[in-house]
Amino acid sequence: MSLLEVDDIEVRYGAIRALKGVSFNVEEGEVVALLGANGAGKTTTQKTVSGMMTPALGQIRFDGERIDGVPAHTLIHRGICHVPEGRRVFPRMSVAENLDMGAFRFKRPDLHVLARVFEMFPRLKERETQLAGTLSGGEQQMLAIGRALMGKPRLLLLDEPSMGLAPLIVKQIFDIVREINASGVTVLIVEQNAAQALGLANRGYVLETGEVVLSGSGQELLADDRVRAAYLGEEIATS
Amino acid sequence: MRNSGLFNDHVKRLLGCLAGGVVLALMVGNQEGVQRDFGYAFRAAIFSPRLVVFLGFGLALFVAITYWSRISPYFVRPGARPLAAGAAAVVASYGLLHWTDSNQVTGGKLGALSSAVSGTDGISSFTRTFFGSVVPGTPWLLLVVVVALGVVSLVLRLPVLAWLAAGLGLLVGVWGYIAQSAVSDYLKTADHSTGAQVAILGYAAIASGCFVIARSQTDQADTVGFIERVFGWRPGFPLAVLGTAVGLVALLTATWFSPADRNPHLSGMTNLFSGEGLSAISSAYLSWLVWVIFVVALALAFAATYLSRQAFSWASIVIGLGAVVLTLTTMHEFSSIGGKSGFDGANGPWQNIGAGPWMLCGAFTMFAGAGWIALRQGRRVDPAAPTVVAKAGSNLNQVLIIVVLAGALFYPPTATQFWQTVIVAEIGIYVLLAIGLNVVVGWAGLLDLGFIAFYAIGSYTTAYLTGTLPIKPPDWLHLTPLAAIPFAIVICLLAGLALGAPTLRLRGDYLAIVTLGFGEIIRIVAVNADKVTNGPKGAFGIPQPVIHLGPIHIQWGQSALQFWYLLLVLIGVTVLLFNRLEHSRLGRAWAAIREDEVAAQATGINTTRVKLLAFAIGASTSGVAGVFFASQIGYINPDNFLLNNSILVVAYVVFGGMGSLPGAIAGAATLTWLPEFLKDQVPAEDRQMWIGAVILLMMIFRPAGLIPAKRRAAELSGFDGVKSAETVAVPAGEGM
Ligand SMILES: Nc1ncnc2c1ncn2[C@@H]1O[C@H](COP(=O)(O)OP(=O)(O)OP(=O)(O)O)[C@@H](O)[C@H]1O
Ligand SMILES: [Mg+2]
Fold this sequence. Notes:
The complex is a heterodimer. Chain A is an alpha/beta fold. Helices cover 36% and strands 26% of the residues of chain A. Chain A has a six-stranded mixed beta sheet with strand order 6-7-8-3-9-10, sandwiched between helices. A four-stranded antiparallel beta sheet of chain A has the order 2-1-4-5, covered by helices on one side. By secondary structure, chain B is mostly helical. Chain B has four domains: 66 residues; 149 residues; 188 residues, no CATH class; 267 residues, no CATH class. Chain B is globular and about 75 Å long. At the A-B interface, β6 and α3 of A face α23, α24 and α29 of B.
């Protein structure tokens, strides 16, 4: 049994069908990447998994139990933590307060987890009292990830963690995702940065206008011509 | 391109500013044209003295715009701002405020009093000289001299002049204060005028500014650091100092009992009541005991704050509170005797009491408060405890809390009838409403323009439950107003949910419009459903609160003061609860959804429930205010609940500082106080202009509000992460 099974879900925004029957699964301990062009429906997929949206059709199972339609604030108690697209830290709260909010589902934050987060992101420790809105983009992304970790996730949903970051920081972030995964957290990551993401992921799915058009292991996808053409900007030798 | 000749840029700007002043003067003046004489208003405006004031404003604006870059480096020097603020306060005192309430002096302002006093022989020449019997306009001349000395010393960095200015300022302030109290002793009327007090405070500010100028030679004042040093030095110490000052005024110069023609100070009390059957303890109190207690309480407060020993703190608290009780019982006793003797038509206790004993109660409260702060602070410094940031800041807050509490408890009895009514019916009620709305607007970030609807619902609920509406409650539900409070809370909670549930998906402007509509719907229903609400006539004869609990019988209604203390309890309970709430899980959840709703959802906050709770909790506060209002005023009608009132409450919250509990209180108190205060100070048609000016100044100098919430202040100090309307309105560095 997979940790997360998404079974033919359809999600609509009013009349727009953003997902038209998407299926995939994530095994415990894996890193799975979702790729796709802008507007393909990656964010929508993640939002549906984390409970911010409800599928019109289809099922989602987590640990074998149906979770489609269960709201986000309930799902978080089962260990599904979401780092939404565009970082979304609380700008007028300090770094420490942001991390505190991440542990909102608990009575009080777990200090061991906090120590782990600071160990992972020493920069956040230095800036504990600084307002999150004044952090740099990279620091904000670290904070967003740290905040999600404070919720002690079993399944971590990352939506474009490398968006707008310098290559060096991107590498750091991916290293940290690897580290998080190594500590036993399953990761479902959405990325434009296909080379990095597939290098990290066990498996990947490619979405196109609301449908899964391609899937396979990270290496397979990296080798696939269509992926290379679309995401790595390589010319395909026309056969 | 620079124009040559007469019309260069400076002249143009000057003319523009002056013209602006004239236009404003025309607009502010009486707008009613007389039939067939449409020029009437114009002439009235042009020939009224007000024009000079406006031309002055225009000139000041011109100077500010043109020379600001040259003035501002001096303005940020240490001491400049206290000097300016003090000078402004003294000018306001001399120009606007009353210096006496006696109707022997028309208008009661400094000018009128001066001309009356200089020609009166029965007053000492010391006093008359201040009021200008030797040199006309002495107070103004002295002010100009002191301020000029201060400014010169600031600009040229001459410490000697600064010392001179500080000393002279203090002398002039004290002289004015003594002169005014000599005059009011001479006039023998109970005096509630504020001019002399404001003037002495202004001079104190000037003197402290000059003191700083003399001592400090840096270019940039570190105001925040200075305040933190002062309040962080010995927690509670400033409170002990303030208590000493207030106590000395109470013991030495304040009136203790004020029936007609007599205004004895403490020293005259023994004489007045000798042989009237005062109990031993009270007569001891009035003759010497009070001094002993004062000195002991004062010494304990200083010892507690300076040495930071728990034993002293506890002793200070106990002695301080005990002294308050003793003072109150003494007051009760001597005023009862005064009432029996029928002084000035009095027929019971608590009448004709002067400001003195009340001020003394305030001073004792401050001593107790100083002990309390020392105690708390002493505990906090426990090295094992996790570090708490902003210790000095929270200590300042505690000082403010004590001062406000002492003021709220002991100031209103010394106010005039008029002010007592204002304090209850305007200030108190709107403070409660603002506290409620702050939850919705400030904490949860939901703009609600129909807030007054819940106030209406609370009021009408009270009217129903007390049986004054056309539809009557069943007998078992026929309640007194106080018993109606829980019902009003529940009904307003439900109404809050009813408004919240369908509107939750709306944000910002859209939510504002829907809530505005809700407010109007409630009012229009109240107007039209005359079978239920009695329509536009409203409900009459809503009974006043009573308590019959075993041996305790309290019937409200004799005076505004009684209502004030009831209201104070309601406000106090609300503030305590909401203070807890702000730092609770719910409070944090509100902060989170206000900051970023998606992120809040991602951290597991049930945004729907949290927003609904904001509506419901805000609404129920408003409901409590409604119950109080209905039972205090006795009749309600739909006109009490206009859209205007909703907007005013929003304005109070914004003015005070959105999302800050003390801010909401301060904002509502200031903006309800100001119009009433201006009533006797400026011509009626100018009142709105002065209010507008105050709001404008506020928005320029403190765009985040009087007492901003931590987060909003951060936002407005302009970081790039958040671009709110305010940051755009006040570009960094543009504010003066
Ligand atoms: N709130 C909304 N209302 C209407 N349509 C929406 C909404 N959110 C997303 N959509 C549409 O759904 C489709 C999928 O959007 P989604 O945000 O999931 O794309 P994405 O794959 O994450 O794209 P990107 O890589 O640009 O982030 C798009 O066509 C988008 O326009
Ligand atoms: Mg996306």
